[in-house]
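Suppose a colleague, Dr. K., hands you the sequence of a protein chain of 156 amino acids and asks what its three-dimensional shape might be. Before reaching for any lab equipment, you can write down a predicted structure in token form. Begin with the sequence itself:
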Amino acid sequence: MRVKAMMAAAALLAAPAAMAQASDWRSVDEFGSGDRQSMMFVDAASVKRPSATTREVMVMSHFMVARQFTSGQRYTAIRISYRIDCSANTFQTFKSTAYLEEQPLFSSDTLTPAAPINEGTIVGRVAPMACSGNFSSVPKITSATPNLEGKRIFGQ
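The predicted structure, expressed as tokens, is then:
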């Protein structure tokens, strides 16, 4: 009985940490056309504030048609973590992962140089939400993952 009580207490203490790590994927926009069409998602729960003017956020693009690296490796999605300087209107990529369906293929932790944020780009669409913390303009996904949501949207 005592072991069960201790396990229940441990579960209650762990619950807030588990909830804090839960994803909140939102459907942001569709990009491209034809075979180059993709659906972009943002994880509102991934936003971090390394400084007063800097935000880090994770986005994922699901491609309607699998793409191929020069090595021949096919991939259906890319997840990218951006560092956004809200006051300078610049961004950097600091992590990217390629996927084939739900399987991660490989990751890169390369920090890119700061670049200007341009309207009409993925970062240009996500930066205002990440900087303000307001994701109310984009709907939550209804599928379990962004890849499954992309397949649902594209009728796959």
